[in-house]
Amino acid sequence: MIQTQTHLSQEWIDFLQIITNSNPIDVETVKKFVKVRYNQFPTDQQMKDYYEDVFSKSTNDVNRKKWHQQDKNLLIWCMTKHLMSQNRFELIPNNNDWDYVSKVLCVDKNLVELKWISHLHSNLKISNWSKEEDQILISIANDHYYKNNWTELTIKFNSISQTQRYPKQIRERWNNVLNPNISRSYWKKEEKIQLLQLILNYGKKWSKIQNELNGRSENQIKNQYNGIIRNLKRFNVQEIEEKLLIQAIIQNPDQKLSLTVTQFMSDYLARKEASKNAQSLKYNQQTESLIQKKTCIDPLPQQNNIQLQEKVNQCKETHQQMLETSIQQNSYFSIPQQQQYQTNPIAFNQCFQNNNYSNYYTNFHQQNQQYYNYIHYNQIQSQLPYSSYQFRYY
């Protein structure tokens, strides 16, 4: 036994009993007939909960003009389940189907049909308007246009016409083509300035701008603005600069557009260069301040520098002592030469290469340091202090 809430209709309760054991909806099958924006259709329980908790409580609200996406999902789900219960797998409802679903959802039959049509993959929606359709729309538009209720106007139109249209088509056809209040004359300069001011206020909301710019259709407004922007592109105006340039045009309505653009670009580039220089100066000041902070005297780094300098001086002294010891122990240098090389270690190194190597290796060449004929071992041994000792070879 299905538990129900008191505000639910008997048609809804009977409908739930009919589809209790039905299969889940295949979203790919649905996509063949209507437009859906998801890859997985909501479950039966989700649709049931949404109708009972939300949709059924606001369906009869006279101020509710717009259907939300979940409302549309509910309609598609309900119609698909109804057709599946009759073993009809092509989602092509007839007049009886509209009547049945409207009672289940407690929604006007024409509105149900209209919402379904707006989701169809149908060539009727993009077909050209006929003279008969234009005459029907003209005959009924005066009663509904000023109410701005395009859904109501569309329902009335579809009940008379042999073809079906949806609200967006009706609105665009009336506003852009059939409305007798639309002006076909050239745009005056005052109109262009007013258009630019409205775009600054509302952005590119053409329908809202049309309500304030009397006598011009949405298409006329859009085309006029795009034409102005195309002219600006000739002056290499970037998109980020459009708003600033529009403000400049509005502030100088009596000046020619070309002069306004030229003056604006000159002033804009000058301000841009000044801003760039100011940023560069600020960056340099910040960098200099950062360097000064890093170079401030800190007790710990100063102590480390002193210790490092002491180690360097100690290494220099050790190196000098090693040089002096080497010079004193070298029997090839006279005392004056030793004194000279103590004060000039570089000269000592050069002399060591030129004299010492050449004394031991007669064919020594400093450039490549190759030794072709080495002196016999006995000749070197005779010059050593322990040359009197005899070493045996094992």
From TrEMBL:
Residues 179-233 form the HTH myb-type domain. PANTHER family: MYB PROTEIN-RELATED, MYB-LIKE DNA-BINDING PROTEIN. One of its GO terms (molecular function) is DNA-binding transcription factor activity, RNA polymerase II-specific. CDD domains: SANT (cd00167). Transmembrane segments: none annotated. InterPro entries: Myb_dom, MYB_TF, SANT/Myb. This is Uncharacterized protein. It comes from Paramecium sonneborni. Residues 121-178, 179-229 form the Myb-like domain. The lineage of its organism: Eukaryota, Sar, Alveolata, Ciliophora, Intramacronucleata. One of its GO terms (cellular component) is nucleus.
